[in-house]
Amino acid sequence: MKAVPPKIRASSPAWAIGLILGALTLVGGATVFFFNPATHGFYPRCAFHQLTGLNCPGCGMTRALYALVHGNFSTALHDNALLVFALAGLMMRAVWVVLRKGRAGRAGEFFPAILLWPALVIALVFTILRNLPAFAVLSP
Ligand SMILES: [Zn+2]
Fold this sequence. Notes:
single chain, mainly alpha, 6 helices, elongated, binds zinc ion
């Protein structure tokens, strides 16, 4: 009788990637919580803004995040409305995925590919609008 060698499964690096992303999120979140981006200069500057003088969709995101975690909702909306609405959308999506998993037993994709194009279009429109003088309220 021959001994059957154990099957070797290719281990997925997903858990390690998740762990690293989780740790980075924790460190980044703590940094933004304790160090105000408006008064601490170690945060990276936006290269697009420095090169062009225009606001990209990410301009003001760190300040908006700081305002959000400190409960200043209107300041967060002023600094980057896209971040506020995107986070709200992601939280609603997370709740929906969890509830669906509870009902159907499987969660499905968190961010289906079909949502990528609408998200890019929204970011592009937001970028164009926040650089127009008529919509200066969207500018950080
Ligand atoms: Zn920017």
